[in-house]
Amino acid sequence: MKVILDPGAQRWLWLLALPVFGFGLAAFGAAWVAPLVGGFAVLLALVASAVPGLRTGLATTAFLLLAPVMVRSSLPGGPGLKDPIVWGPLAAMGLGAAGFAWKRAGGSLWLAYALVLLVLYFSGSAGGPDPMRAWLASFLGPDQIEGALILIRKTIHFGFYATLGGLAWLHFREASSSALLALGFALSTAVFDEARQAGLASRSGQPQDVLLDLSGAACAVWVVSRVVAARTRQAQ
């Protein structure tokens, strides 16, 4: 049992998932998607492994196994969020987080990976602005829709990456340079998000969105780290 729980060995547990991960990516119709997703996912796994251990290994292995499912679902004509093949991976990561909830911040990486799976889905054609535009048209005038659309989408960007940054910091909190690691985790996700959108005819990747995402993550890292530090001082 000591070998199974050895942090150094668990740092590379996710490598067991790489063959399945590569096989899942191999059937993509758009040839550029596979290397982009593959490079991003492995980079994220390497960043997460800065905190080695069983929790990191299991969460990263699950993420690598489920990532191809989410990306394939995001291709044109893919299933919607109500389809089990889309919400199933998210539920699996949630169950993983619940399983480690007894450990301090034990489920944070699982939840962070769940958010990344959402990025893998919504960075494709499923995340376009048309559904929200149609919803806004039901109660706003034509001259108000675009302004409201931009405000809502940018607010979602900021809030989403703030949540991701906060969860990432909780995972890295015991590591040196925890803030930089959390920001690197969030930044890698934001760059992938916009890079994939830039390669789609129906989407447009925007560098300013990366800065907005990073700002959200930085605010959350600052707030969460200080709240945790204050609670630690009170407990002593």
Layout of strands and helices, then pairs:
Blueprint (H helix, E strand, L loop, with lengths): L1 H4 L1 H4 L7 H8 L7 H16 L5 H20 L10 H16 L8 H15 L7 H7 L5 H31 L5 H21 L8 H29 L1
Helix pairs in contact: 3-5, 4-5, 4-10, 5-6, 5-7, 6-7, 7-9, 9-10, 9-11, 10-11
Notes on the structure:
It is a single chain. The chain is an all-alpha fold and 236 residues long. The chain has helices at 2-5, 7-10, 18-25, 33-48, 54-73, 84-99, 108-122, 130-136, 142-172, 178-198, 207-235.
Q: Poorly predicted ranges (pLDDT <50, ≥5 residues)? A: 1-5
Terminal CA distance: 33 Å
In one word, what is the shape?
A: globular
What is the C-alpha radius of gyration, as a whole number of Å?
18 Å
Helix content: over 70%
Average residue-wise pLDDT: 84
The tally of strands reads: 0
Note the total helix count: 11
Topology pattern, helix = H, strand = E: HHHHHHHHHHH
Structural class: mainly alpha
Percentage of residues in DSSP E strands: under 5%
Largest sheet composition: none
